[in-house]
Specification:
heterodimer, A: 6-stranded mixed β-sheet, globular, B: 219 residues, mainly alpha, binds adenosine-5'-triphosphate, binds magnesium ion
């Protein structure tokens, strides 16, 4: 359903993606790991058109992702994004954050959007925080609202860019739990993460990328337990045993 | 003191007419400068080079010419080109355009202070540029923009006296007329100063309240 074919992207003279290709099937959960600066965020940002790519193609179903075309709105409705730093709208309540897209982008009637929004809040375990503003919420709570906001668009896939990296350690679990429940319901997810244990357990496939290309990919459990490439082995050793 | 009070009672009604015109010029040019300033600011942040440069050139142009010269231009030169405006209209338009430059710099700073992640989050739920501005950026920028906006209001109130140079009989001008007819300079100009203070002090109070409100916390 998401197909990247030989995608290239440069920032000035910095060639960040150097022919990135992969296919993500409906219902598949793919984890992308790799060192800092390897282009993981850029891949996600190209998929929903926050960044333009220079060469190759990205398709969501039949639609080609083109940041400068009108069809990008359609792409973004179909593929939501969850950010490392949550990026909730601080001037709106938790519920309003969730209903913003359905009401103002999709034109859903307010009462129906709010009813759905409340259900989504309950789903991420924050039913009682409906009227709270983001600054009043903990990081873990904010990220869960952000996930609900992404779900509210009823997307076909959700992209997660290091969703737990900005969290205090004690809040990582609550966010991963919500993501795991999405996985169990069959949501298509692309997750950039350093949570190797989580990836091993939840993901179908793992991709290790370095310097803008895929170095190794395979079934998550296998590849993250016994990687074949020396670079992957080295990276995993450093992530799981930092000292 | 006794003298001052009797003078005050005598000239206050005329001076109050001036106050009326001062308020009219200030509010009129405040509205115009706000709208124009917002237009320049949005052009500056549009990401479209032509609009950005047009606004930039225009704003620098306005900033580089004294207000009084702009007023003369509108009131005395435009009629030669077939555009005749009343003194009042000229004053409002002149001050409005002159101050739109300051307004736009303030608005632009406020817009650019908003975290870029907000724009990306809004884009990621499918919002277009206008909706992002209206529903995400501007509501957050207001808190940053308001305190300086209050200061601009105070400056505009005082600068409305420049309208006297193109014959608008606002407060400063009324004062000068009365003073030169009666030679009661001290009483008259003291009253003029007090009347300006009566208008600007409440505004200053409002600004400091706003600054405190936004400094201490949310919304
Ligand atoms: N907007 C940008 N302008 C210029 N260079 C950029 C921009 N965004 C990313 N880069 C560069 O592209 C490269 C890849 O960045 P990217 O954010 O995709 O890496 P990453 O794998 O997500 O790293 P991290 O683990 O640190 O998040 C880096 O060298 C980065 O400096
Ligand atoms: Mg990244």
């Amino acid at each position: 359903m998401i197909v990247l074919d030989n995608v290239h992207k440069s920032f000035g003279s910095n060639h960040v993606l150097r022919g990135f290709s992969t296919r993500i099937e409906k219902g598949e959960i793919v984890c992308i790991i790799g060192p800092s600066g390897s282009g993981k965020s850029t891949v996600l940002r190209c998929i929903n058109g926050l960044e333009a790519y220079d060469d190759g193609s990205i398709r969501i179903g039949e639609t080609r992702v083109d940041r400068d075309s009108k069809s990008i709105v359609d792409v973004r409705k179909r593929v939501s994004m969850v950010f490392q730093r949550f990026n909730l709208f601080p001037h709106r309540t938790a519920l309003e954050n969730i209903t913003e897209g359905p009401i103002y982008v999709k034109g859903e009637p307010r009462d129906r959007a709010e009813e759905r929004g409340r259900k989504l809040l309950a789903r991420v375990g924050l039913a009682e925080k409906e009227t709270a503003h983001p600054p009043q919420l903990s990081g873990g709570q904010q990220q869960r609202v952000a996930i609900a906001r992404a779900l509210a668009m009823e997307p076909e896939a959700i992209l997660f860019d290091e969703p737990t990296s900005a969290l205090d350690p004690e809040m990582v679990g609550e966010v991963l739990a919500v993501m795991k429940s999405l996985a169990e319901e069959g949501m298509t997810m692309v997750i950039v993460t350093h949570e190797i244990a989580f990836a091993r357990e939840v993901a179908d496939r793992a991709i290790f990328m370095d310097q803008g290309v895929i170095v190794e990919e395979g079934p998550a459990r296998e590849m993250l337990s016994a990687p074949k490439q020396p670079r992957t082995q080295d990276f995993l050793r450093r992530v799981t045993h930092p000292i | 003191m006794q003298r001052f009070l009797t003078d005050a009672a005598e000239y206050l009604p005329i001076l109050m007419q001036g106050v009326g015109l001062t308020i009219l010029v200030t509010i009129g040019s405040l509205i115009l400068s706000t709208v124009l300033g917002l237009v320049w600011a949005l052009m500056r942040v549009s990401g479209i080079k032509v609009l950005d440069w047009t606004a930039k050139i225009f704003v620098n142009f306005i900033r580089g010419v004294p207000i009084i010269v702009q007023l003369f231009y509108i009131y005395f030169v435009l009629p030669d080109m077939g555009i005749a405006l009343s003194a009042m209209q000229s004053a409002i338009i002149g001050l409005g355009i002159a101050y739109s430059a300051y307004q736009s710099e303030n608005f632009r700073a406020g817009i650019q202070a908003i975290d870029h992640g907000q724009i990306e989050a809004a884009q990621s739920i499918g919002m277009g540029w206008w909706m992002i501005m209206r529903r995400v950026i501007l509501p957050q920028a207001i808190r940053i923009v308001l305190p300086p906006y209050g200061n601009i209001m105070i400056m505009m109130l005082k600068d409305s006296s420049q309208a006297s140079t193109i014959t608008v009989a606002e407060l400063a001008m009324q004062g000068k007329l009365i003073a030169s007819a009666t030679f009661k300079n001290t009483s008259v100009f003291t009253m003029v100063a007090i009347l300006y203070l009566c208008m600007s002090l409440p505004l200053m109070y409002l600004v400091s309240r706003l600054e405190k409100h936004y400094a201490t916390g949310r919304r």
